Amino acid sequence: MTLESGGFFSYDLGSCKKLFNLECDVKPVRLAILGLGTVGGGALKLLKENAAEIKRRTGREIEITHVGTRRPRPDLDLPESVKQSADLMDIVRQPDVDVVVEVMGGIHPAYEVIMEAMKHGKHIVTANKALLAEHGNELFKAAEDNAVQIAYEAAVAGGIPIIKVIREGLAANKIEWLAGIINGTGNFILSEMREKGRAFEDVLKEAQELGYAEADPTFDVEGIDAAHKLTILASCAFGIPLQFDKVFTEGIGKVTAQDVKYAEDLGFRIKHLGIARRTDAGIELRVHPTLIPDDQLIANVNGVKNAVLVQANAVGPTLYYGAGAGAGPTASAVVADVVDIVRDIIYTEDGAGTIPQLAFEALSDLPILSREQMTTGYYIRINAEDQMGVLADVTTILSRAGISIDAIMQQPRLSKDLIPIVILTDPVKESKMDAALSQIQALPVIHGEIVRIRLESLDN
Ligand code: HSE
User: What residue owns the CA closest to ligand 1's atom 4?
Assistant: First the structure.
């Protein structure tokens, strides 16, 4: 501790004891890490590798006292002092644990274990987006009741500190919308298919080997993982309860090379986006493949990278980019949360932190819109018989429905009698588009199912 001119103290806990011969509270902060998979292993490695730098940031030693795992990992070379057990409930009740780092994923037993840990006064760091999106309201309430905090930076967009950005960096703003590539596996698959013409299954297998994919990869492919993350982002952006069950979700499974090519010819890329938008009628929460202009920075985010574009009323648009999955990036977010909690333990009375868990002290009950109430532009592809008047029939239906066409393109014939027609529309309410498309689908000259992919300009 040093006395600076003007009479302010600056703290240096290391020298505090020496200078004043005081018994300062410099006990290490003790962690239990539950789960030694990609993220748990990455966090342990990072805490070891960067121990000196982290101590310099916090002024406090961080000690791992317990590891909860069913499959010990000798490769991690844990000190003998670390107690390893598969009994997670027992670990979180131990007195030599201040913070529980839950990185095992899945809803059960993570939910029960975290609840028990909080009852015993432990702070929580978790990367578990599924758990928070589906049970976060109860968990945050229990955290408040027990005066502990749940930190969850690693739950969304891997290594990008997007939760900190939204909860703290943009706190002066009213956030209007955000749109993000928030599933690294999905973006990796779409990028490899587009750039290298690789097969879907082959790229997915590689994503699993690289530790990007969820234990159940259908979560990545069907957009569920992105919907979990969008749920969390939207709550922090708009100050609303977590409402995963209201997210409209469509995966990447139906995106074809043909549509990727046609979109590119029209100056667009197809990205799998999570979009949360505040409208006068309520909030849109949607996850789906989306055409976006190829000159948008976010259109050029490829591979396992994530990016989140946030439109806020004072600052305007800001874009956050980085690795969305993998051991190092996710561990970076986990350990940053540990550092925050260590600081809170040192500098606040109960260590429960000063920032509201979902960014707002008062949550709002803004309604979430149904899919039919949402408004978006569209890419439509129709396979039609090559006959006079087909285009006129289709455009008449659209114009009668009040749908404005932005571009129309007849593609080279694919089979002997069928021509693909691609139409881009201005934004329109989905219910109107549903009605128009069912009329078009019913025309006898239309073959196969009409393809529709949503389109966003992302410019306001
Ligand atoms: N499966 C997730 C992804 C991991 O690919 O983005 C990171 O949350």
Answer: 325
